[in-house]
Structures
1.
Amino acid sequence: MNATITTIYEELRGFLDDHQVSTNETILEQHSKDESYHTPSLPDIVVFPETTEQVSAIVKVADKYNTPIVPFGIGSSLEGHVIPYDKGISIDFSLMNKVLEVREKDFLVKVQPGVTRNQLNKELKKYGLFFTVDPGADATLGGMAATNASGTTSVKYGVMRDQVRNLEVVLPDGEIMHTGNLAQKSSSGYNLNSLFVGSEGTLGCITELTLRVYGIPEHIAAARAAFPTVDDAVEAVVSILQAGIPIARVELVDEHSITQVNRFSETDYKEKPTLFLEFHGNEQGLNHDIEFTREIVEDHGCEEVHFEEDNAARNKLWEARHNLAYAYMHLNPGKKHMVTDVCVPITELAGAIKFARKRIEELGLLGGILGHVGDGNYHTSLMIDMDDPEEMKSAAQFNEEIVEYALERGGTCTGEHGVGIGKMKYQQREHGKAFSVMEKIKLALDPHEIMNPNKLVHTKRRSL
Ligand SMILES: Cc1cc2nc3c(=O)[nH]c(=O)nc-3n(C[C@H](O)[C@H](O)[C@H](O)COP(=O)(O)OP(=O)(O)OC[C@H]3O[C@@H](n4cnc5c(N)ncnc54)[C@H](O)[C@@H]3O)c2cc1C
């Protein structure tokens, strides 16, 4: 520890207990990485605050010594978001993990940022409610707000930004503020909820969230539909959306990924491009939606369709889909998982996916394609040998090409995983003049550039 870090450590110990401040090698190492292929880097200190006031005091110490801060949820992000390349203090929110209030009749819940989505849903179930956003990992709600996460249900319920009613935020000078209120709608002032959602810890620390929740649907049905080609599957989705069927989930898994699912989850799904679908509603409406969907998928050449209304079968189907990333990792030991993430207008999706598949094969890469097709968002799951520079180069080239393809067609370099360090190089190209406005916002709120520096926007901060 250098002299400044020793002083910071001692000041932090002045108001935090022993178990709340650590320089232990294992703890530092746990906070040096996310779930991506980006190179790890250790923080100097990890802290575990229990209250907003403690977060505020930590930030004030960091500001006083001009030391970087990196907020940390569970570290499941995929673009190097939480890696402290400029060292400093990693603030781990795992001890701020309480569901503070369920306002059943307002369909609102107030939580601390370290609550995970599964923990929240377990609590909400007692009230007949659920929280809709479901990224593949059991992420924290603070991390999910900070990355504007989404998942399989956003086609019906929207993304994280649509669920946030109010945030309590500790600003880079340690002051505490609220971004919203409890009202269903508001025309009052700049929309700071939207500014802080997706800000990736670069503007402040989220210490409390008030979120929209929904009643658990009376009936839920799920289906699996296999198609001859990806084109047929995507066109079926466009027709389902055009028909106004209120589909709750619609996920595409290509045939390569279905093979991985079958091997990992011991299923025997047809190894063809497959849509996983889900419908929410009352019995009568649901029966109508199911029949209409069946007709549409059959019109698009669907080779096999299975509907599951039984809870266990439905859970198995979605578990298989959610475990896909882990299936790739488990079945390809020694390789690192690299997930890409672009989003295009839905009419461009079939072309984008075909282009990605073609390039995966031409570049000799190993991987499959899956996507939240109702949103025009797709991922490729690549398995990379990190010791093979040629393979690393091909993967990077592939990523560049699919981002370019998306940007040329009015899409975005990230549909849901966020920018971190991995997508910074595309920001100027994607946002143009708006990117310099983002840089001005960053500097106005964080003039000393201590909040997650050199992520999302370029800052002038030198590495310490
Ligand atoms: C297998 C797998 C599947 C995934 N599937 C999806 C998916 O379908 N959709 C999707 O959107 N993402 C997905 N992800 C990515 C990841 O789960 C999300 O980005 C998630 O929102 C990150 O939450 P976290 O708690 O892990 O945050 P972290 O990774 O710890 O942090 C993410 C970012 O948020 C900031 N942050 C964390 N907490 C706070 C806070 N309290 N205040 C301010 N900033 C904070 C961090 O500084 C960092 O910039 C997946 C990841 C994995 C490993």
2.
Amino acid sequence: MQSLIRDPNLSPAGEKKIAWVAAHMPVLAAIRQEMEKTRPFAGVRVALCIHLEAKTANLALTLKAAGAEVVATGSNPLSTRDDIAAALVASGVRVFAWYNPTPEEYREHLRLTLETRPHLVIDDGGDLVHLLHTELRGVAEGVIGGCEETTTGILRLKALEREGKLLFPMVAVNNAQMKYLFDNRYGTGESVWAAIMRTTNLVVAGKTVVVCGYGWCGKGVSLRARGLGARVIVCEVDPIKAVEAVMDGFEVMPSLEAAAKGDIFITTTGCRDVLRAEHFRQMKDGALLANAGHFNVEISLKDLAQLSVRQEEVRENITAYYLEDGRRLYLLGQGRLVNLAAGDGHPAEIMDLSFSLQALAARYVLERGKELPPRVHPVPPEIDRQVAELRLAAWGIEIDRLTPEQEAYLASWEGE
Ligand SMILES: NC(=O)c1ccc[n+]([C@@H]2O[C@H](COP(=O)([O-])OP(=O)(O)OC[C@H]3O[C@@H](n4cnc5c(N)ncnc54)[C@H](O)[C@@H]3O)[C@@H](O)[C@H]2O)c1
């Protein structure tokens, strides 16, 4: 089968969206310009499983321009945009994805993507890699390696590595500085609020926001909440992160205590059941619940369903859960990562950095090939640096260079 999408006629709308973001992704444009000449992916099949929206499409088209045969699918049921899928197909990328598939359809789309027998996999959350280590182990034999986009996917890869079961090398793109410092922190910080504000049409200023998890995403979400005028409470399990949150000026307390105080709750942990029955029992009438972590497991949907007598979609992407005592809790985007399920995802300039890392890291895996053992590898520091340099160059910003004397001083143990 060539492709499986909702409606090929949607491609003109998708093409416009891709053109808009591409015009704001100068780093990837510079990489594309170079790769169009050198065609490092000529004859290479690349399977892409990332939120299938405009910025991802730009990555897919860059890889294609670099010679790859690209096949793409979505990494989350609610983040696929059907017009983008159509535009990609019109540009010669094979796509197996549509918005809001059933769990069976979602899995089938992943399976069809892998049945094209890719040489490289670019995964976001670890679903492709999981299939390659279970149902489709035969396909894994032809996989040279790949890259992983997000924290949760890397946790899953590390678990495979620990058990000695990882079948091919994977580069942890998420752990590059040019990724988490900007994508996880500022990207999530901005896009989560953009999504919550447009989905609810409610004010943030003056509200109490509870952020669960003070990792890179939680830091960005907390920072931007404060900028919007909210009082921010942080809940953590890591004492170091908790100290950091206090020193950054936020209130820190256990989530059960915060449950009674919050107007808006946002989970950014990568963990499960962070907000559950005992929290819902404490919450105020009208509390908003949103998740920004990769999977829809951070807010217990099972507990919400059990505690409620009725559910209703009261506005697009807002489900009201009516509790027995009359309180209402509002869940945004079905508890899936709110910035993509109920918004446009990270800003284009942010994904420019992440996807530039992806393109360069994929080339690195291909070039190093079998030399790389089947482990989780860091992004080489030269690639991180190259992306930063390209970003500065696109802004026209120059920075200082060390003098030879300074270099010698920094490399010496003797001091003055
Ligand atoms: N929405 C997006 O666009 C987006 C972007 C990047 C990452 N992510 C996802 O967001 C999640 C977090 O990513 P990150 O990079 O911030 O990870 P991180 O590891 O930097 O931070 C996670 C934090 O959550 C804390 N935590 C874990 N379990 C907890 C619990 N039960 N209660 C309170 N705190 C807990 C950890 O101590 C840690 O500080 C991951 O699932 C990641 O894949 C989403």
3.
Amino acid sequence: MKDGTGLLETIDGPDRLKELTADQLEKLAGEIREKIIGTISRNGGHLAPNLGVVELAIALHRVFHAPEDKIIWDVGHQCYPHKLLTGRAGEFDTIRRTGGLSGFTRTGESPYDCFGAGHAGTAISAAMGFSAAESLSGGHDHVVAVVGDGALICGISLEALNNLRSTCRKLIVVLNDNKMSISESIGAIPNYLNRIITGRNYNRFKALAKMMVHRLPGGTSVIGNIQNLEASLKNLFVPGIFFEELGIRYIGPIDGHKLPELIRTFERIKDFTRPVLVHVVTEKGRGCDFASEDPEHFHGTGAFHPDTGKSDRTPGDTFSAAFGRALTELTETDPRVVSVTAAMASGCGITDEYRQKFPDRFFDVGIAEEHALVFASGLAAAGFRPVVAIYATFAQRALDCIFHDAALQDLPVMICLDRAGIVEDGPTHHGIHDLGFLRSIPNLAILLPRSEAELQAMMEEAHRRQTGPVVIRYPKGASGYSPDDRPAPLEWGRAEIRRQGTDLVLWAAGRETKTAEETSDILKEKYGISAAVVNTRFLRPFDRETFLSFAEHMPVATLEDHVKEGGLASQAAELLAESSAASRSRLFPFGWSAGEVLPHGKTADIRQSRGMTPRQIAETLAESLKTMSDHAS
Ligand SMILES: Cc1ncc(C[n+]2csc(CCOP(=O)(O)OP(=O)(O)O)c2C)c(N)n1
């Protein structure tokens, strides 16, 4: 090591941190920030959350002894400094790339990732599991859960806090409070935390009282009385009384960028024999001007210029943007329309302008998917027309609410599922199981737009005729259809025949209609096979008539960006099984396999490696048709 430069390269594990001086630790923090900015500028990823926890990760790994001590990062999106400090600096350039490090904690990746994550609000419960296991097995290792202020308000986190004192003798919760979820944290608990941070009255009062008492003759003997007074005043305005009342010792707020203070605090509390919450105040995007100035944009980002934060990509149209446009139009034209999101406004295409224009009709309930769905159901029951914007994978949290509250009561809630299909972030974020869950729920219509324009048309139509709950699901990004490609008028429950064919029908879900059209082109050009293409449009109510009219005469291939089990392929198989077409038709399902945990990485790579490109699908189908005709002759 020369003059403290290149320190990061020498960090082969957290033990190395224990040898460094205070100055070296500060230097290391700078190097970690540089490494993260440089790497994420190329690979994309969660920038601002990670820049905010550099000192916190250093302090935790300096004081605790992972992997024996367990450090559990909620969501896991802020685990980059943790990865850099736990022997993964050498591979860090591969983060989020195909075959590279995951952008979240993942148990298979390292013993230091003791619990995998991706969805918010699980760290305290998981840490409680580790802590209870320590007690049961007579162990003495420490367990630390690091939770953001956004994730703290998740139902699971609050359920865990409620259960903490009665279940765990020892556990450390680090509350990483940067006042931000993806957007600003809102609600009573974030407000309360904010009051603790800004409310200096109590601290001032305490310091003043102590000073005055010491100056009094015999002052020290009065200290006992003052402490009694303090105990009663605590109930009025001590910071953290909320946690104290739950049986959790509250420490803080402390500056999350002052390493000595962090280290001192963790050293002091690590052997407490009751649950403790350390309230650490951090700045999202710390040390990078553009990220700290716009932490919402730089929460999760694609590639950018490392000096300016600017991106070369010209933003084209996307499904999310089309959703935002249709939502704006509906909100403008019908006073009953309101929108609800669970902390995903910007990702879902709900723009700042929309939020400013309709402040009373837009509800961001925080990371509370279950509440979002039941709240929307209440609004619908009261005569409003709620539109819920949520990512497909996070909607899984609210399945029972979709079933029990929206669907059983047949309420007009429009549930728009963004990021349905595979995404770069990996298994926790792929939206490829929703149809399997949703297709068995009564009263629920399920619509699958093939393009941005069709999404808008579906939202308008669903709103116009809506009597019960509707799910509209669409993927991240763009459809590939030109903006001039106008969808044919929608007929409720009817599929759209895109092109006729004589040898085979490619029956596609949503954007896979584009894949089917490209496949059909290749089949024609390369193999002389004439393939019809149908855009499903409605998975429920399903267009049985059109489906069977094709299946009576030709084999069917289903294409979906979803696992084959439970989605379109299952729908097709069920229909064939109950109709006479089954004896004549063959089904070739194309989609993901529920038996495999799909990795992270470029979606194009995932498609390619699983035979899901148009060229590969065409080749598979051509071979299958040939085998069929060989058997027949
Ligand atoms: C169940 C669930 N809903 C939504 C998300 C999307 N999401 C990822 S990070 C995040 C914000 C988390 O805020 P906080 O816990 O305060 O952490 P910070 O990013 O501020 O460090 C959200 C909403 C998620 N991961 N899981």
